[in-house]
Write a structure and sequence with these properties.
The chain has 314 residues and is mostly helical. The protein folds into two domains: 25-149, Peroxidase, domain 1 (Orthogonal Bundle), CATH 1.10.520; 156-290, Peroxidase, domain 2 (Orthogonal Bundle), CATH 1.10.420.10. It has 13 helices and two strands. The chain has helices at 25-39, 43-55, 88-101, 108-122, 142-148, 156-164, 170-177, 191-195, 209-218, 242-248, 255-262, 266-277, 279-294; strands spanning 184-186, 228-230. A two-stranded antiparallel sheet has the order 1-2. Helix 1 runs antiparallel to helix 3. The longest helix is centred in the last third of the chain and has 16 residues, at 279-294. The radius of gyration is 19 Å and the shape is globular. The structure holds protoporphyrin IX containing FE and calcium ion (2 copies). One calcium ion binds at residues 54, 57-59, 61, 63-64. Removal of H(2)O(2), oxidation of toxic reductants, biosynthesis and degradation of lignin, suberization, auxin catabolism, response to environmental stresses such as wounding, pathogen attack and oxidative stress.
Length: 314
């Protein structure tokens, strides 16, 4: 029986966790999301990312949702999160509805996992059964948010190491990076590639020329830090495999996207090519890797709590 440090093997979570205590849980999450995404199509991407930033810091325990408090230094102020992660109002709305129907039952950590899955489905991506039963943390870690979420200018070795620490392998890294098939990134996260990739005041040579020129107009050398560009310029709202096709053409937005192909690791290079030609294969692996990521270090049993308000401990 494979017990991993986080990802692989037995987690104690199972899809039917709320079958008797809150059978409407799935529907309630989906109905709020349908409305939220219809109103703001980018919201699907933002909610998918929120689950990732939760799971990589202390595990999938909704630590990312906590605001500053007497004992809490909010993760929202960490480098990878500040002025960047969004979707808290949608999570609040889901939680409020669930509290009305099944008080003190469905955890914020499970809401994040369900919202990530439903956001994927509503964008045209794969469906999977979400293992449930996570409980919510009574702590947050600003410092771990700064050190355990990989940076956009990561090398392929950095990425592999950061994922390995969470029990995730190269297949998980390449498939989960495919989350960048939807959503946007700010100029500050890709400027280095345009103006000074290697400390020689030259752009990243792997960037395709016309794409590069377009990016420069969105992201000047100074200023415009918060200007945004799609991570998948071909279909930023559609969950598909064009992310990988674009990488093959030198049109991946972040260094962390491009190095999956050009980072000189044969396995990740091969996977990018495989997913670029076989969307079904990507969908299958994405679903599998999302379950693995969702299994990182959950609080179960009597550990943690079921928060009444996702922004604060009870
Ligand atoms: C492999 C390492 C990863 C790195 C270095 C990375 C980095 C980034 C960066 C820098 C942004 C833009 C943030 C901003 O400018 O505000 C971003 C956005 C995003 N990331 Fe990642 N990411 C990684 C993995 C993932 C994973 C595993 C997922 C989910 C499965 C994911 C989903 C997203 C989504 C959906 C967006 C767009 C969010 C929005 O539009 O609000 N990323 N990522
Ligand atoms: Ca967490
Ligand atoms: Ca896409």
């Amino acid at each position: 029986f494979p017990f991993g440090p986080g990802g692989a093997g037995y987690s104690g979570l199972f899809p039917e966790f709320y079958q008797f205590s809150c059978p409407q849980a799935n529907e309630i999450v989906m109905s709020v999301l349908e409305e939220a995404i219809a109103q703001d199509p980018r919201m699907a991407a933002s909610l998918l990312r929120l689950h990732f930033h939760d799971c990589f810091v202390q595990g999938c325990d909704a630590s990312v949702l906590l605001d500053d408090g007497a004992t809490i230094q909010s993760e929202k102020n960490a480098g990878p999160n500040k002025n960047s992660i969004r979707g808290f109002e949608v999570i609040d709305k889901i939680k409020a509805k669930l509290e009305r129907v099944c008080p003190h039952t469905v955890s914020c950590a499970d809401i994040l996992a369900l919202a990530a899955r439903d956001s994927t489905v509503l964008s045209g991506g794969p469906h999977w059964e979400v293992p449930l039963g996570r409980r919510d943390s009574k702590t947050a870690s600003l410092s771990k948010s700064n050190t355990e979420i990989p940076a956009p200018n990561s090398t392929i070795q950095n990425l592999i190491t950061f994922f390995q620490r969470k029990g995730l392998d190269e297949e998980d890294l390449v498939a989960l990076s495919g989350g960048h098939t939807i959503g946007v990134a700010r100029c500050v996260t890709f400027r280095q590639r345009l103006y000074n990739q290697n400390g020689n005041n030259q752009p990243d040579v792997t960037l395709e020329k016309s794409y590069y020129n377009g990016l420069k107009s969105v992201c000047p050398n100074t200023g415009g830090d918060n200007n945004i560009s799609p991570l998948d310029i071909a279909s930023p709202l559609r969950f598909d495999n064009t992310y990988y096709k674009l990488i093959l053409f030198g049109k991946g937005l972040l260094t962390s996207d491009e190095v999956l192909l050009t980072g000189k690791v044969a396995r990740t290079m091969e996977l990018v090519k495989n997913y670029a030609v076989d969307e079904a294969l990507f969908f299958h692996q994405f679903a599998e890797s999302m379950i693995k990521m969702g299994n990182i270090n959950p609080l179960t049993g009597s550990n943690g709590e079921i928060r009444k308000n996702c922004r604060r401990i009870n």
